[in-house]
Amino acid sequence: MGSMGRIWPAALLLMFVGLQHSSCFWVINVMFPPPIKPTIPNNSTPPLVIVPGNLGNRLEAKIDKPTLVHWLCFKKTPHWFPLWIDLNMFMPVGVDCWIDNIRLVYNRTTRRSSNSPGVQVRVPGFGETYTIEFLDNNKLAGYFHTMVEHLVSVGYSRNGTIRGAPYDWRVAPNENEEYLVKLRELVEDMYKQYQKPVYLLGHSMGCHYVLYFLNQQPQAWKDRFIKGFISLGAPWGGAVKALRVMASGNNDGIPMLSNVKIREEQRMITTNPWMLPFDEFWPKEHVLVSTPTANYTTQDYERFFTDINFENGWHMWLDTKNLTGDLHPPGVEVWCMYGVGLPTPVTYIYDEGFPNADPVDFVYADGDDTVDSFSTSLCKRWIGKQSKPVHVTEFQGLMHLDMVYHEKVLNLIQYILEGKSETPSEIDVRV
Question: Could you give the CA distance from residue 49 to residue 163 in angstroms, rounded to a whole number?
């Protein structure tokens, strides 16, 4: 970023505490995590690889830029610096510098994305957990920390039997071939080291990355190296929220960032069009976005992208819609967990300010407050369509992001990793 000065952790703590509960990875779940009951360590723990969701791991950048969006932005840095989360992004000018550093440039001819001119981006800590436990160096923005701590308390070892598989979440797996190779090598290395097949655990969009990865592997490879796939809060049928993100933006409750401002970044990553509601599964008549002049369903994506003046989004969707859009069974044993019982938007209603103003109303359905249960429950389609068992557990009253924190989820994951396949069909977390 630029010469914005250092943001001190104490000030940030006050800022984070004031955020909405639904905001991504915030401090409340790190400083006051759910209580963990001590368990006798188990030296025979099966290896586990965690694949995070969208925004779910750190990114770093190094810049030597030909031009600047603001004179306060750094033009050149000799070292790698945090790009996500870069806490300077919460400053008025810092957000412009950050957007210009993290943005992608999409090429309709090559159907590929590249970094902003003069910017290099890398994913730190592949095979380690620190980059998914906390998203910032000050350890304020926690994500998988509580889960990793829980697993360590029952015999797992960081960067040993439990590893993180972070990736560049700005791009879909069709542009992340090197990551898929590294993930396969990580699984094989852990199998060789511990002489046991590996569990894969994904959260949210990370589950689609895992599904895509598994569908690229021969069945014989999966039978040998993969013990099972634990999915948490997966938007198996896509997420209606993606339409709002690209239409008018969504700051996830960060008060210093306007929705329209953060929309600049959200329109530049290919994973948002990838996560649009899948047209193969959603009812063709279901209105996803309603405005005074048009209603948009899964059949109207081209017109939607034209009307919001984001035609690259249409091409990004064409590139990614078939990656996991048919929900081909993964070919391994699956434990599919998701939250239900919470009002979740399935239609966004706008007034004449569309697309440069927030929705004025919503139509709700059942879900986890972020993804509706119609989408998260589509893993049930795999039952009977593959030889491996598929187990489904619905958590009544559990929010989307709390899937990685809640004690009852962590206990069930521990239960599965201990080799107990059968799981309850429903768990109530409201009490």
Answer: 5
